[in-house]
Amino acid sequence: MLPFGGHLLAVDTDSKLTVWEVETQEVYLPIEFGANIFDVSALCHPATYKNKVLLGSEQGALKLFNVKTNHLIFDFDGFGSSVRVIDQSPAVDVVAVGLADGRIALHNIRLDETLFTFKQDWSVTSISFRTDGPETMISSGTEGHLAVWDLNKKRLLGQMTDAHRSQVTIASCVVGEPLMVSAGTDNALRTWIFDQPDGLGRELSLRDGHSAPASTVRFHGADGEWLVSASLDGTVRAFSAWKDTKQQNLGTAGTMSRAQAKRTHRDLDQIRLPAVVAMDAGTAREGAWDNVVCVHDRSPIVTTWTTKKQRLGTHQLLHHRFDSDPRLRQAVAVSVCVSACGNFALIGYSSGHVDCFNIQSGKHRGAFKDPAVVTEGDKATRAHSASVVGVGSDALNQTVVTGCAGDRLKFWTFKTKKIIRTLDVGSPIVRMTLNRDNGLLGVALANGAVGVVDVQCRRVVRRFNKAHRAPVLALAFNADGHWLVTTDAIRYMKVWNLSTATLVDVLRFESPCCAVSLSPTGEYMATCHQDRRGVFLWANKAVYQQHLPLKPLPLDFEPAVATLPQSAGGSEQAAVDNVQVMEIGEDDDDDDDLDADETKPNRQQIAVEMVTLSGLPAPRWAQLPDMDLIRLRNKPKEPPKKPKAAPFFLPTVATLEGFAFDAPMEADDGGERSRILTAKRSFLEPSTKFGVSILDADTVEKRRSAFEALKGMGPSAIDLELRTLPNEALLNFLQMLVDVVRLRTDFELAQAYLASFLKIHRDALWSLDDAQLLPLLRELNETQKSAWDALDDLMIENLGVIQWLKSAVL
Prior knowledge:
Blueprint: E1 2-4, E2 7-11, E3 16-21, E4 26-32, E5 40-44, E6 52-57, E7 62-66, E8 71-76, E9 83-88, E10 94-99, E11 103-108, E12 113-119, E13 124-129, E14 136-141, E15 146-150, E16 155-160, E17 168-173, E18 179-184, E19 188-193, E20 202-208, E21 214-220, E22 226-231, E23 235-240, E24 247-252, H1 258-263, H2 268-271, E25 276-281, E26 292-296, E27 302-306, E28 311-317, H3 321-324, E29 333-338, E30 344-349, E31 354-358, E32 364-367, E33 388-393, E34 399-404, E35 408-413, E36 419-424, E37 429-435, E38 440-445, E39 450-454, E40 459-464, E41 472-477, E42 483-488, E43 492-497, E44 502-509, E45 513-518, E46 524-529, E47 535-540, H4 541-544, E48 561-562, H5 572-581, E49 583-584, H6 596-599, H7 627-634, E50 652-655, E51 658-661, H8 670-684, H9 689-695, H10 700-711, H11 715-723, H12 730-743, H13 747-767, H14 773-807
Parallel strand pairs: 44-48, 47-49
Antiparallel strand pairs: 1-2, 2-3, 3-4, 5-6, 6-7, 7-8, 9-10, 10-11, 11-12, 13-14, 14-15, 15-16, 17-18, 18-19, 19-20, 21-22, 22-23, 23-24, 25-26, 26-27, 27-28, 29-30, 30-31, 31-32, 33-34, 34-35, 35-36, 37-38, 38-39, 39-40, 41-42, 42-43, 43-44, 45-46, 46-47, 50-51
Helix pairs in contact: 10-12, 12-13, 12-14
Domain WDR36/Utp21 N-terminal: 1-195
Organism: Plectus sambesii
Protein name: Small-subunit processome Utp21 domain-containing protein
């Protein structure tokens, strides 16, 4: 593609050049060349050549074309090799043509004459010229190197080796600056500055991501800002969900350190461990020692990492049995878990072993052994007879749960490593995850069923049969444990409400989701997808939308395919469209255009004896009684300072003699001015629309209307209205609250308004001499007590039933 003034030029795979009107988005001119005759591979607009574009082809020929008149201006013979890139040089009429055989020809298109030619060892992928003074040219190639050429001496100035880990797709110099930006297929964007004595550049800044598809991701920390992810390129990275510029590459792991590899003359690629396929992290001892453990593909070695220092840790966890026992040479680590205390790492292996390591020292601290699992020549050293696909520990380090590729879940005591109970789930386990906050274990089975196990009671509490029609790839709980998210190999993601045992949301992607994690704050969900290098961040509409209907869905519900954002190309509007689909809970039906009132849950009172809430978010009313404290906290620490220099324009006033400077009011006039302002305020009160309406509220309908007006205001506006209420309106305001509490509607708003009102006007109520005040306060007290007692009795009853259900053995 090539921007061309108010037009956009694009060439498709059939060698068809299309000229688009950007403003109208209509096709201005289509030009077909034919891929067999002239397969367009590069295009460039020569400087000062109006309405003309220079085209390069796979056949090696060039054409100068007028895209306004659709006329061929000149047909160049070519260079005998496929044209890969054409770039305009600082000299008019001269362009640089990069070829597939590594040649770079500086060609005068007006004279059809090649001035001179450079040659590099790899195919040319990009060319750019510096315009800040030095007459140099930079070229890139398929091997990730950058070459700097001296145009005056017509020779190679130097080479910037390994600028990228793979092919450089583009290198572009900034106009008039000693800067260059390069991008490559390694998913890295680098900025270079040319300030070296040898004329070569050095790396100034770097923005990069995973160069291979991401394999696993998880949120780290209680605030939900950071994500830790790993990919098939072997790197572990930390990303910020709040600010995309805050990211860190923790590096890659190897069988030995870089220093040891250098001393033994070993290649870094040879000592690098395979890609990370599973990991777990803890925050309890993050500042003391390593807190992330990673499982590598087809390797028994488990590595430790630290997010505090943002690098590879100090230990590689491996039991000596895997080196000494020939029968275990093929065993690999499969699953891992960091204990809640942050001191231990639990590792499950394909051989059925489960080991416990101390993360601080890296020493082995025991193995979980089931006496019932004995193999030939083995003395009961295994926990399972099959591969351990999942391992987890509870929040108090009392219980450890392990699941194997067979159909067994086993519960162990953490301290003694002895088995407590074995649970047969009826089908091989493929995935499992533990929510420490509520002690629920999510288990995915090979038959497509998904179950939830109570770790404390050691029994199945939820089971969704035929939840998926394909193997489950990932599952995760949300922060409060009410939702369980599962994904499968046929691109579905399903959200299960555990309280109601229903399916509440279904998403379908373009690529299967292989890893999922939900933030501790409930705002975001992070996913990794097969054959996608990015970590995708999704917004939870249940957090941001006030009324989100999550109606139960059938198991065979078919949603529309959610389009994943692309890493390159696309317009601004396409990017916006991609963001719009990234929302959990979005209904994919065609009824999304219905009015908001049709999807909003019914907030009307079901029965007069029931207490009904307003449904407004807590920030609208919860802080009302403490607004004065909030203002005090937000008050500037230092008062604003007077400027040392007088302003250029001084205030003036008109006098009989002309204009004079406006002198400030004398200090002794302060008392008189204060008295005048107080009199004006008393005369103007009430000054707000709400104050006028509450003074005139002599009927129930008027008082209800005033309450609705107050309900639509923000916290600061409500606080202002309450503080500016005149004494004559206090009785009507109290009567308004009596009406609302008696109806038992908007109950939490009435409580917040009453608390704030009494805090602000308690002195006025105490000194107010009105015969109607005392009976009104008694009525408010009785109405309030009646409504609260009914609600309190129901809450105590429900809490008692819940406590009994939690402790009873059924």
